[in-house]
Amino acid sequence: MRNEPDKVDWVRVMPFAILHLGCFGIIWVGVSAFAAWAAVFLYFVRMFAVTGIHHRYFSHKTYSTSRAGQFFLALWAGTTVQRGSLWWAYHHRHHHQHSDDPEDAHSPHVHGFLWSHIGWITSRRNFPTDYSKIKDLQKFPELVWLNRFDLVVPILYAASMFGIGALLEKFAPGLGTNGWQMLVWGFFVSTTALFHGTACINSMAHLMGKRRYKTDDDSRNSFILAIICLGEGWHNNHHRYQSATRNGFYWWEIDPTYYGLKVLSWTGLIWGLKNVPQSVLDEGMRAEHEASVAAAQASSQVRPEHASSLRHVLPAAAAIAVATVNAANTQIPQKPDSAAMHKDLTELAHELDRKAPTAHTPAVSTDTDNAR
Ligand SMILES: [Zn+2]
Ligand SMILES: [Zn+2]
Fold first, then answer.
1. In this predicted model, what pLDDT tens digit does every residue of 3-17 receive, in sequence order?
2. How many whole angstroms from 177 Cα to the centroid of ligand 1?
3. Which segments show compositional bias classed as Polar residues (predicted)?
4. Any idea where the domains of the chain sit in the sequence?
Protein backbone atom coordinates (compact mmCIF):
# COMPACT_ATOMS: atom_id res chain seq x y z
CA MET A 1 0.00 0.00 0.00
CA ARG A 2 2.89 2.37 0.76
CA ASN A 3 3.78 2.27 -2.93
CA GLU A 4 0.32 3.23 -4.12
CA PRO A 5 -0.16 6.70 -5.59
CA ASP A 6 -1.58 9.54 -3.51
CA LYS A 7 -5.25 9.53 -4.39
CA VAL A 8 -8.58 9.62 -2.61
CA ASP A 9 -9.97 6.17 -1.82
CA TRP A 10 -13.75 6.58 -1.62
CA VAL A 11 -14.11 3.71 0.86
CA ARG A 12 -11.90 5.65 3.28
CA VAL A 13 -13.93 8.79 2.71
CA MET A 14 -17.05 7.13 4.15
CA PRO A 15 -16.13 7.46 7.87
CA PHE A 16 -15.41 11.18 7.36
CA ALA A 17 -18.63 11.65 5.43
CA ILE A 18 -20.60 9.92 8.22
CA LEU A 19 -18.83 12.01 10.89
CA HIS A 20 -19.68 15.27 9.11
CA LEU A 21 -23.22 14.26 8.13
CA GLY A 22 -23.88 13.27 11.75
CA CYS A 23 -23.52 16.95 12.71
CA PHE A 24 -26.72 17.69 10.77
CA GLY A 25 -28.47 15.64 13.44
CA ILE A 26 -28.80 18.88 15.43
CA ILE A 27 -31.73 19.69 13.13
CA TRP A 28 -33.69 16.85 14.74
CA VAL A 29 -32.26 16.64 18.26
CA GLY A 30 -32.06 20.38 18.91
CA VAL A 31 -29.74 21.86 21.48
CA SER A 32 -29.54 22.35 25.22
CA ALA A 33 -26.96 24.38 27.12
CA PHE A 34 -25.73 21.16 28.72
CA ALA A 35 -25.17 19.37 25.39
CA ALA A 36 -23.45 22.37 23.78
CA TRP A 37 -21.09 22.87 26.74
CA ALA A 38 -20.44 19.14 26.86
CA ALA A 39 -19.33 19.30 23.20
CA VAL A 40 -16.90 22.13 24.00
CA PHE A 41 -15.61 20.40 27.12
CA LEU A 42 -15.13 17.09 25.28
CA TYR A 43 -13.34 18.90 22.45
CA PHE A 44 -10.67 20.19 24.86
CA VAL A 45 -10.46 17.00 26.94
CA ARG A 46 -9.82 15.04 23.74
CA MET A 47 -7.61 17.70 22.13
CA PHE A 48 -5.45 17.23 25.22
CA ALA A 49 -5.37 13.52 24.36
CA VAL A 50 -4.30 14.27 20.78
CA THR A 51 -1.54 16.65 21.81
CA GLY A 52 -0.48 15.25 25.19
CA ILE A 53 -0.86 11.54 24.35
CA HIS A 54 -0.81 10.76 20.59
CA HIS A 55 1.80 13.43 19.99
CA ARG A 56 3.92 14.16 23.05
CA TYR A 57 3.86 10.61 24.44
CA PHE A 58 3.48 8.01 21.68
CA SER A 59 5.16 9.96 18.88
CA HIS A 60 7.98 11.61 20.80
CA LYS A 61 8.14 9.95 24.24
CA THR A 62 8.67 13.28 25.95
CA TYR A 63 7.72 11.78 29.33
CA SER A 64 7.43 8.37 30.98
CA THR A 65 4.62 6.30 32.46
CA SER A 66 3.97 2.72 33.63
CA ARG A 67 2.64 0.03 31.29
CA ALA A 68 -0.80 0.31 32.87
CA GLY A 69 -0.57 4.09 32.62
CA GLN A 70 0.38 3.77 28.97
CA PHE A 71 -2.68 1.58 28.30
CA PHE A 72 -4.93 4.08 30.05
CA LEU A 73 -3.44 6.89 27.93
CA ALA A 74 -4.00 4.84 24.75
CA LEU A 75 -7.68 4.31 25.68
CA TRP A 76 -8.10 8.03 26.36
CA ALA A 77 -6.43 8.85 23.02
CA GLY A 78 -8.71 6.30 21.32
CA THR A 79 -11.75 8.49 22.11
CA THR A 80 -10.36 11.12 19.72
CA VAL A 81 -11.40 8.91 16.76
CA GLN A 82 -8.05 9.52 15.04
CA ARG A 83 -7.25 5.85 14.55
CA GLY A 84 -4.80 4.01 16.81
CA SER A 85 -1.97 5.65 18.71
CA LEU A 86 0.57 3.52 16.82
CA TRP A 87 -0.78 4.58 13.42
CA TRP A 88 -0.70 8.18 14.64
CA ALA A 89 2.85 7.89 16.01
CA TYR A 90 4.21 6.22 12.88
CA HIS A 91 2.79 8.89 10.56
CA HIS A 92 3.95 11.67 12.80
CA ARG A 93 7.51 10.34 13.04
CA HIS A 94 7.46 10.00 9.26
CA HIS A 95 6.38 13.66 9.02
CA HIS A 96 9.35 14.80 11.10
CA GLN A 97 11.71 12.70 9.01
CA HIS A 98 10.45 14.09 5.69
CA SER A 99 8.94 17.48 6.61
CA ASP A 100 7.93 19.40 3.51
CA ASP A 101 9.69 17.07 1.10
CA PRO A 102 7.75 14.94 -1.44
CA GLU A 103 7.69 11.95 0.99
CA ASP A 104 5.84 14.01 3.62
CA ALA A 105 2.28 12.67 3.67
CA HIS A 106 0.74 16.03 4.55
CA SER A 107 2.85 18.96 3.44
CA PRO A 108 0.76 21.91 2.19
CA HIS A 109 3.78 23.01 0.15
CA VAL A 110 4.04 19.71 -1.71
CA HIS A 111 0.41 18.56 -1.91
CA GLY A 112 -1.66 21.71 -1.39
CA PHE A 113 -3.89 22.81 1.47
CA LEU A 114 -6.84 20.42 1.05
CA TRP A 115 -4.69 17.32 0.70
CA SER A 116 -2.60 18.18 3.76
CA HIS A 117 -5.76 18.94 5.76
CA ILE A 118 -7.93 15.92 4.98
CA GLY A 119 -7.10 14.30 1.63
CA TRP A 120 -4.03 12.38 2.81
CA ILE A 121 -5.99 10.38 5.40
CA THR A 122 -8.35 9.08 2.71
CA SER A 123 -5.48 7.69 0.63
CA ARG A 124 -4.80 3.93 0.77
CA ARG A 125 -1.11 4.80 0.77
CA ASN A 126 -1.42 6.27 4.26
CA PHE A 127 -3.62 3.53 5.68
CA PRO A 128 -1.06 1.03 7.03
CA THR A 129 1.04 1.40 10.17
CA ASP A 130 4.73 0.78 9.44
CA TYR A 131 5.79 -1.02 12.63
CA SER A 132 9.47 -0.86 11.71
CA LYS A 133 9.40 2.84 12.65
CA ILE A 134 7.70 2.30 16.01
CA LYS A 135 9.51 -0.76 17.38
CA ASP A 136 9.48 0.78 20.88
CA LEU A 137 5.66 0.63 20.81
CA GLN A 138 5.23 -2.59 18.84
CA LYS A 139 6.43 -4.68 21.78
CA PHE A 140 3.19 -4.01 23.68
CA PRO A 141 0.48 -6.38 22.35
CA GLU A 142 -2.30 -4.39 24.03
CA LEU A 143 -1.28 -1.30 22.04
CA VAL A 144 -1.05 -3.29 18.80
CA TRP A 145 -4.54 -4.69 19.49
CA LEU A 146 -6.00 -1.22 20.07
CA ASN A 147 -4.28 -0.07 16.88
CA ARG A 148 -5.65 -2.97 14.86
CA PHE A 149 -9.20 -2.67 16.17
CA ASP A 150 -9.20 1.10 16.23
CA LEU A 151 -12.99 1.37 16.02
CA VAL A 152 -13.60 -0.30 19.39
CA VAL A 153 -12.89 2.72 21.60
CA PRO A 154 -14.75 5.22 19.35
CA ILE A 155 -17.84 2.97 19.33
CA LEU A 156 -17.71 2.64 23.13
CA TYR A 157 -17.27 6.40 23.41
CA ALA A 158 -20.26 7.11 21.15
CA ALA A 159 -22.38 4.56 23.05
CA SER A 160 -21.42 6.14 26.37
CA MET A 161 -22.52 9.56 25.07
CA PHE A 162 -25.91 8.08 24.24
CA GLY A 163 -26.05 6.32 27.63
CA ILE A 164 -25.14 9.46 29.59
CA GLY A 165 -27.78 11.44 27.70
CA ALA A 166 -30.43 8.79 28.37
CA LEU A 167 -29.57 8.69 32.10
CA LEU A 168 -29.68 12.49 32.35
CA GLU A 169 -33.07 12.56 30.67
CA LYS A 170 -34.35 10.19 33.32
CA PHE A 171 -32.62 11.50 36.44
CA ALA A 172 -32.01 15.18 35.59
CA PRO A 173 -34.79 16.18 33.18
CA GLY A 174 -34.18 19.84 34.05
CA LEU A 175 -31.04 19.76 31.87
CA GLY A 176 -33.23 19.24 28.80
CA THR A 177 -30.99 16.69 27.16
CA ASN A 178 -31.39 13.08 26.03
CA GLY A 179 -29.48 10.19 24.49
CA TRP A 180 -29.73 11.26 20.86
CA GLN A 181 -28.86 14.86 21.63
CA MET A 182 -25.75 13.85 23.56
CA LEU A 183 -24.76 11.46 20.76
CA VAL A 184 -24.97 14.26 18.19
CA TRP A 185 -23.25 16.96 20.28
CA GLY A 186 -20.83 14.90 22.36
CA PHE A 187 -19.79 12.59 19.56
CA PHE A 188 -20.49 13.96 16.06
CA VAL A 189 -20.17 17.73 16.54
CA SER A 190 -17.33 17.60 19.06
CA THR A 191 -15.36 14.96 17.13
CA THR A 192 -15.73 16.75 13.78
CA ALA A 193 -14.45 19.97 15.35
CA LEU A 194 -11.65 18.00 16.99
CA PHE A 195 -10.65 16.51 13.65
CA HIS A 196 -10.45 19.91 11.94
CA GLY A 197 -8.63 21.48 14.90
CA THR A 198 -6.01 18.75 14.76
CA ALA A 199 -5.80 18.84 10.96
CA CYS A 200 -5.01 22.57 11.15
CA ILE A 201 -1.57 21.64 12.47
CA ASN A 202 -0.91 19.55 9.36
CA SER A 203 -2.28 22.12 6.94
CA MET A 204 -1.76 25.52 8.63
CA ALA A 205 1.22 25.14 10.96
CA HIS A 206 3.53 25.02 7.95
CA LEU A 207 1.86 28.07 6.37
CA MET A 208 0.73 30.49 9.07
CA GLY A 209 2.87 32.27 11.67
CA LYS A 210 6.49 33.15 12.29
CA ARG A 211 9.63 31.14 11.89
CA ARG A 212 11.92 31.68 14.87
CA TYR A 213 14.26 28.78 14.11
CA LYS A 214 15.69 28.25 10.63
CA THR A 215 14.66 24.59 10.45
CA ASP A 216 14.98 22.74 7.14
CA ASP A 217 11.17 22.70 6.74
CA ASP A 218 8.60 25.50 6.74
CA SER A 219 7.17 24.95 10.24
CA ARG A 220 5.83 28.06 11.97
CA ASN A 221 4.80 29.39 15.39
CA SER A 222 1.22 30.64 15.65
CA PHE A 223 -0.60 31.92 18.73
CA ILE A 224 -4.02 31.24 17.15
CA LEU A 225 -3.13 27.61 16.43
CA ALA A 226 -1.70 27.31 19.94
CA ILE A 227 -5.14 28.22 21.34
CA ILE A 228 -7.09 25.94 18.98
CA CYS A 229 -4.70 23.04 19.59
CA LEU A 230 -3.74 23.58 23.23
CA GLY A 231 -0.12 24.57 22.60
CA GLU A 232 0.67 22.69 19.40
CA GLY A 233 0.72 25.98 17.48
CA TRP A 234 4.36 26.50 18.54
CA HIS A 235 5.19 24.13 15.73
CA ASN A 236 8.45 25.74 14.62
CA ASN A 237 9.76 25.40 18.18
CA HIS A 238 8.72 21.76 18.12
CA HIS A 239 10.41 21.05 14.78
CA ARG A 240 13.61 22.58 16.20
CA TYR A 241 13.55 20.42 19.33
CA GLN A 242 11.08 17.52 19.40
CA SER A 243 12.03 15.79 22.63
CA ALA A 244 10.77 18.47 25.03
CA THR A 245 7.41 18.01 26.76
CA ARG A 246 6.59 21.64 26.12
CA ASN A 247 6.08 23.20 22.69
CA GLY A 248 5.79 26.73 24.06
CA PHE A 249 9.44 27.24 24.92
CA TYR A 250 9.11 30.54 26.80
CA TRP A 251 6.68 31.53 29.56
CA TRP A 252 4.68 33.78 27.23
CA GLU A 253 4.08 31.00 24.71
CA ILE A 254 0.85 29.56 26.09
CA ASP A 255 0.95 25.75 26.13
CA PRO A 256 -2.09 24.28 27.98
CA THR A 257 -1.07 20.72 27.09
CA TYR A 258 2.16 21.18 28.99
CA TYR A 259 0.35 22.65 32.01
CA GLY A 260 -2.03 19.66 31.96
CA LEU A 261 0.83 17.18 31.73
CA LYS A 262 2.56 18.96 34.62
CA VAL A 263 -0.60 18.51 36.73
CA LEU A 264 -0.82 14.83 35.67
CA SER A 265 2.79 14.38 36.80
CA TRP A 266 1.79 15.47 40.32
CA THR A 267 -0.68 12.55 40.44
CA GLY A 268 2.10 10.05 39.73
CA LEU A 269 0.48 8.78 36.50
CA ILE A 270 3.35 10.20 34.42
CA TRP A 271 6.85 11.39 35.24
CA GLY A 272 10.17 12.42 33.72
CA LEU A 273 8.87 15.40 31.71
CA LYS A 274 11.71 16.58 29.47
CA ASN A 275 12.90 20.18 29.41
CA VAL A 276 14.07 22.34 26.53
CA PRO A 277 17.90 22.56 26.65
CA GLN A 278 19.25 26.00 27.60
CA SER A 279 21.26 26.09 24.35
CA VAL A 280 18.04 25.81 22.29
CA LEU A 281 16.40 28.58 24.36
CA ASP A 282 19.46 30.81 23.89
CA GLU A 283 19.49 30.08 20.17
CA GLY A 284 15.81 31.12 19.98
CA MET A 285 16.47 34.39 21.79
CA ARG A 286 19.43 35.16 19.53
CA ALA A 287 17.26 34.52 16.47
CA GLU A 288 14.52 36.84 17.86
CA HIS A 289 17.10 39.55 18.53
CA GLU A 290 18.60 39.30 15.06
CA ALA A 291 15.12 39.38 13.49
CA SER A 292 14.17 42.56 15.41
CA VAL A 293 17.43 44.25 14.39
CA ALA A 294 16.83 43.30 10.75
CA ALA A 295 13.24 44.63 11.00
CA ALA A 296 14.49 47.94 12.43
CA GLN A 297 17.04 48.22 9.63
CA ALA A 298 14.41 47.47 7.00
CA SER A 299 12.01 50.06 8.42
CA SER A 300 14.74 52.73 8.41
CA GLN A 301 15.04 52.26 4.67
CA VAL A 302 11.36 52.97 3.92
CA ARG A 303 11.16 55.93 1.55
CA PRO A 304 8.42 58.53 2.28
CA GLU A 305 6.56 57.83 -1.00
CA HIS A 306 6.23 54.19 0.04
CA ALA A 307 5.24 54.96 3.63
CA SER A 308 1.54 54.76 2.94
CA SER A 309 0.39 53.55 6.36
CA LEU A 310 1.21 54.07 10.02
CA ARG A 311 2.88 50.69 10.01
CA HIS A 312 5.54 52.09 7.73
CA VAL A 313 5.58 55.68 8.93
CA LEU A 314 6.08 55.06 12.66
CA PRO A 315 9.24 52.90 12.52
CA ALA A 316 10.72 55.25 9.91
CA ALA A 317 9.90 58.27 12.11
CA ALA A 318 11.54 56.55 15.10
CA ALA A 319 14.63 55.83 13.00
CA ILE A 320 14.77 59.50 11.87
CA ALA A 321 14.45 60.65 15.49
CA VAL A 322 17.34 58.40 16.56
CA ALA A 323 19.42 59.61 13.64
CA THR A 324 18.64 63.25 14.48
CA VAL A 325 19.68 62.84 18.11
CA ASN A 326 22.87 61.12 17.07
CA ALA A 327 23.67 63.79 14.49
CA ALA A 328 23.12 66.52 17.08
CA ASN A 329 25.67 65.04 19.46
CA THR A 330 29.01 66.78 19.28
CA GLN A 331 30.71 63.58 20.25
CA ILE A 332 29.79 60.70 17.97
CA PRO A 333 29.46 57.49 20.02
CA GLN A 334 32.42 55.27 19.39
CA LYS A 335 32.24 51.52 19.07
CA PRO A 336 33.90 50.08 22.18
CA ASP A 337 37.21 48.31 21.67
CA SER A 338 36.17 45.27 23.63
CA ALA A 339 33.36 42.96 22.50
CA ALA A 340 30.12 44.88 23.13
CA MET A 341 27.11 43.30 24.83
CA HIS A 342 24.85 44.16 21.89
CA LYS A 343 27.36 44.40 19.11
CA ASP A 344 24.77 44.39 16.36
CA LEU A 345 22.76 47.22 17.99
CA THR A 346 25.89 49.39 18.10
CA GLU A 347 26.40 48.66 14.45
CA LEU A 348 22.78 49.57 13.78
CA ALA A 349 23.22 52.96 15.46
CA HIS A 350 26.15 53.66 13.11
CA GLU A 351 24.20 52.39 10.16
CA LEU A 352 21.29 54.74 10.93
CA ASP A 353 23.68 57.60 11.57
CA ARG A 354 25.28 57.09 8.19
CA LYS A 355 22.10 56.48 6.17
CA ALA A 356 19.51 58.80 7.69
CA PRO A 357 20.76 62.21 6.41
CA THR A 358 20.67 61.07 2.77
CA ALA A 359 17.62 58.84 2.98
CA HIS A 360 15.41 61.40 4.74
CA THR A 361 17.12 64.57 3.64
CA PRO A 362 15.06 67.71 4.20
CA ALA A 363 13.59 67.16 7.69
CA VAL A 364 16.72 65.66 9.19
CA SER A 365 19.24 68.15 7.82
CA THR A 366 17.11 71.17 8.82
CA ASP A 367 16.65 69.90 12.38
CA THR A 368 20.32 69.08 12.63
CA ASP A 369 21.33 72.57 11.43
CA ASN A 370 19.00 74.21 13.96
CA ALA A 371 20.37 72.08 16.74
CA ARG A 372 23.87 73.12 15.87
ZN1 LIG B 1 5.21 19.76 11.12
ZN1 LIG C 1 5.98 16.13 16.52
1. 777 788 888 889 899
2. 40
3. 363-372
4. 10-276, 279-371
